[in-house]
Write a structure and sequence with these properties.
With about 100 residues, the protein is α+β, with helices and mostly antiparallel strands. The chain has one domain. The protein is about 35% helix and about 30% strand. The chain contains three helices and six strands; from the N terminus they run E-E-E-E-H-H-H-E-E. A hairpin with a 2-residue loop joins strand 5 and strand 6. The longest helix is centred in the C-terminal third of the chain and has 14 residues.
Length: about 100
C-alpha cells in the first residue's frame, strides 16, 4: 500500500516541496501498535494501544488484539510472535 510518509517526528515528510508517497505498510503497522483508543477521530477503536499490554505483560491478549486490529484495517496477518516487550509481526495488505 502506498500512502503519505511520516518522518521520525510524525510530521508529513516533504522532499523538494512535495509530499513523499511510498510503500507505507510498516508505517501503518507501527501507528496501529503505538496509537491508543480514540487517537483517530474517524476510527476511534482502530488502535492496539501497546503500552497497556506491555504494562500488564499479557502476551496472549496482546497478540489477539494485534491480529484483530490489523485485520480490521485490511491486513492479512501471517504470523505474530509476542514476547513482551518484543513483538514480531508478518502482515500485509492484500492487493
Amino acid at each position: 500500500m502506498h500512502d503519505l510518509i511520516l518522518n521520525n517526528d510524525y510530521d508529513l515528510q516533504v522532499d523538494n516541496g512535495d509530499f513523499v508517497v511510498e510503500n507505507s505498510e510498516i508505517q501503518h503497522q507501527g501507528l496501529l501498535l503505538l496509537s491508543e483508543k480514540n487517537d483517530f477521530k474517524e476510527f476511534p477503536d482502530r488502535c492496539v494501544g501497546s503500552r497497556r499490554f506491555v504494562e500488564s505483560n499479557d502476551s496472549e491478549t496482546y497478540a489477539r488484539e494485534i491480529s484483530q486490529q490489523f485485520n480490521a484495517d485490511g491486513m492479512t496477518v501471517h504470523k505474530i510472535i509476542v514476547n513482551i516487550p518484543e513483538v514480531a509481526i508478518e502482515a500485509s495488505y492484500e492487493s
